[in-house]
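assembly run, all chains below
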Amino acid sequence: MKSRLHFDEQLLSRERKRLLEQIEKEQEHIGYYSLPNQDISPILEFAQSFDDTIETIAVIGIGGSSLGAKAVYEFLRPVKKLKRRLYFFESTDPINIESQLESIDIEKSHFLVISKSGTTVETMAIFKYIYSLDSSRDRFTFISEEGSKLDQFAQKIGATRFHLQESVGGRFSVLSVVGLLPLALSGVDVVELLKGASRIKESFFNDGYIKELLLNKASFYAKNHAIYNINCLFAYSETLRYFIQWYVQLWGESLGKKQRHSAFNVGLTPIGLIGPKDQHSFLQLIMEGTRDKSISFIEIADFQKSLEIPDISLPHLEDMDLLNGVKFSDLISMQSQSVLEALLEEGDIPIDEIVIDRVDEASMGELIYYYELLTSLVGELIDVNTYDQPGVEAGKRILKEKLEKRKKND
Amino acid sequence: MKSRLHFDEQLLSRERKRLLEQIEKEQEHIGYYSLPNQDISPILEFAQSFDDTIETIAVIGIGGSSLGAKAVYEFLRPVKKLKRRLYFFESTDPINIESQLESIDIEKSHFLVISKSGTTVETMAIFKYIYSLDSSRDRFTFISEEGSKLDQFAQKIGATRFHLQESVGGRFSVLSVVGLLPLALSGVDVVELLKGASRIKESFFNDGYIKELLLNKASFYAKNHAIYNINCLFAYSETLRYFIQWYVQLWGESLGKKQRHSAFNVGLTPIGLIGPKDQHSFLQLIMEGTRDKSISFIEIADFQKSLEIPDISLPHLEDMDLLNGVKFSDLISMQSQSVLEALLEEGDIPIDEIVIDRVDEASMGELIYYYELLTSLVGELIDVNTYDQPGVEAGKRILKEKLEKRKKND
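ok done. output:
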């Protein structure tokens, strides 16, 4: 991975010291930092000896329990022959549940029920429904915190259980068993995924090039969070379609908070974009709209595809001969560079770029850890608790009241 | 459709008069207003007599040439047995082009090449590639402005052509031949789609209930555009996944502009969300983040599905028995209402809601026209040209320079 800022920023040395001390301290109780170095042999063994007749792994999970695995799986799927399909049941929309169920064969499927707390309403509602269709314990594997009610249930029925450490939050859990188990079962090389993450971790904590870059990038976002309150991630490949959704959750849910030492609501709003498609959708707003957005480009250095535009001239369309003989991979690179340069010409839009090597596990591991670290740094600088989400409780409380009222009226 | 604002707003009568006069005047040169009343018999006849051996309609188009048809098609697909699949080639990403081509049988496919100007780089690059694989003219139908270079080419090779009127902009073209042709070929009832749009049009222009509602909603967004510069559309059904992408283009590209009579960059930033999934991703930021967002809910009144959570009690999970016997359609409604009430409790987040009757063509037609009108109203009030997109030209110019330079170096 290469990464480069097109704006000037230098974190002050006193702030720098304090920030690094905080991050050092966080590592004692925030679990995601050490995930690249975990022992994953239980996951690998489980995947290796898994029933070969199972064709589909269906994840019943939502938010942090699905977005990470989905991002990695959908990134690799178009280029890698994977062993099993991954499916995600993430909605209570009955139309969606029905059409998802129609497209899998339950007899050839295995369900991973994933909920950190074990009491996620959507997950439990869907699980109950599917369990009523087939209640054999071998059909299910459960991932939850040790001792949660879901974990106790799984133990009671004698199903396989995996545990997510309490110190790893849902949106930071893709490199834990939550993401690794479905990925390993589908045939993704999770060892390589962790290797990529390790590279970024090493570079950051051992004074590699990524350290100053991330510190300065975080500093810029934090210092200017009231001006550039929107951060766009403009990824130039369809393979990153779900990665940007993972980023939206990570960024939005981590950084949209009440400040710890003030009365203020703060937050950086994430927007995920895919190029070149969204040049035809969102670029106009970036170029000419309110100056409230920073833009990060993600590009792929080597698409490993030789597909090219044929060298044919069509009557009346001779203007398009400029494209003849151009590889699509070169075209898309030129497109992202053209947009980047056009935005730089404006002079008042903060731009940076990330170039990953290719579409493989290690590159995705790098991207994931890069964004997790960046999120932690910004969170610390804008004085929020990066790892909680108290704002979602009110909705849950009201839903519970509605369900109780409904039951009473029955 | 029902629609309701949870904030107080009253457009001043002088402004109201001026705005309505402007919209009246716009109808003379902005084509989308009259699309609900157009004669679509050529489209219907073409679809009716279309080759039965064709199983896949592949749209080669990007932005306004694909987002609308995709929104409607993906909305209906899970509930309606459609005659043909729709595919969309929207990217120059070589990985994407290859995997899309692998999943269709060219012999059983028909390609719709859609570009208003006829010179869209992405569309022409993909078209050239596919044309080099199969250059029989019967394999393609072309939709472009009459007399464009693409139209001239299509005429030259003797292929079928349809024309988009110059007065209909790409992002307002879903109810023109651009959206209707692929939809009619796939088996969507486009007559019903237009009927839905007509209902909203009638209600607005003949003093129906939608008129004051849209005027006041537009007034609120425009007046507060510097405070609530982000508009979130929170749609509670997976079927609306692509509708929100269509909305993002419509809103962002129409309203992100330099003002006509000032030196300022203005813009309202659209964000599309899907419930309940994004409760686990974006809700925290809305609840506790910076107060820069308005939220519009879209709900479906009748999912027409009886799927329910089974009445079973599981050991250790008895807390979840509250869900027993609840229909999923009731659960998702309770979820959206719970989030809406939680946000209202905050007191400083502007909320409104739209309830469509069901997942069918007429409801989608209503939604489309509702948002088109709202966009026109807000654009007029914040003093931008709603219908152009000058900001995307710089990137195109730079790309052309890069391609020319490359050619010279060859």
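Chain A touches chain B through 120 residues (CB under 8 Å).

Residues 38-188 of chain A form a domain with the Rossmann fold fold (CATH 3.40.50.10490).

not gonna interpret more than that til we talk
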